What we know:
Layout: H1 3-14, E1 19-24, E2 30-34, H2 41-53, E3 57-61, E4 64-71, E5 76-80, H3 84-95, E6 99-103, E7 119-121, H4 125-131, E8 138-142, H5 147-160, E9 164-167, H6 171-183, H7 188-191, E10 194-195, H8 207-223, H9 229-235
Parallel strand pairs: 5-6, 5-8, 6-7, 8-9, 9-10
Antiparallel strand pairs: 1-2, 1-4, 3-4
Helix pairs in contact: 3-8
Amino acid sequence: MDLALLKELNAERAARRAAILVTDVADGAGQLVREGDEISGELGEAVQRAFRSGKSGLTEIDGRELFLNVHVPPPRLVVIGAVHISQALAPMAKIAGFDMAVIDPRTAFATEERFADVALHAEWPEDALKNNPLDAYTALAALTHDPKIDDFPLTAALKAGCFYVGALGSRKTHAKRLERLKEGGLSDAELKRIHAPIGLDIAAASPAEIAVATLAQIIEALRKRDLADGLRMRAA
């Protein structure tokens, strides 16, 4: 592998940005493609499929056999609120391949007994996110119903370009939330990215069912995400 390409690839991986090393099997020539790069034709289509699936493999384009070595950051799920929904969500998120963390300053809820196998931060989101910044491969679910806890991470998630941002609450609750966040400086386009009420509409009633609906919506957002977002994030 070309050392310059390897250095570029390692830089993308360290920054939790997706990249694909495209190698011509015949002559070993390589090309690094970052998520969001504008590539046309069959190669562009193959690269988009690879970014969405996260799987490496061979492809034939214009008579050339190319190997697409895909490097996609493991998706993370940051949950604001150590609530019953979060407890149900934790084992399902792990099975689905998400690294999950729970943030809640309310120490009566954020206990190791309730979240034994989860990265737990019993502190305010403003403090927790300083050392664990959000990024484009992170989903954020705000579940506390408390604006003092939820509003900051929702704003941070939209600014960071998280692939999914969801919030628990009724439509009336969400309307008030939108007013607050807009007064805080968020644009209408940014606010439209919030999934609320959270989760796919499957008439979920119990905390476990809401967790199922939420995880399904997160997976849908990950697999159907706008790959051009990566280009916009780099240009910002």
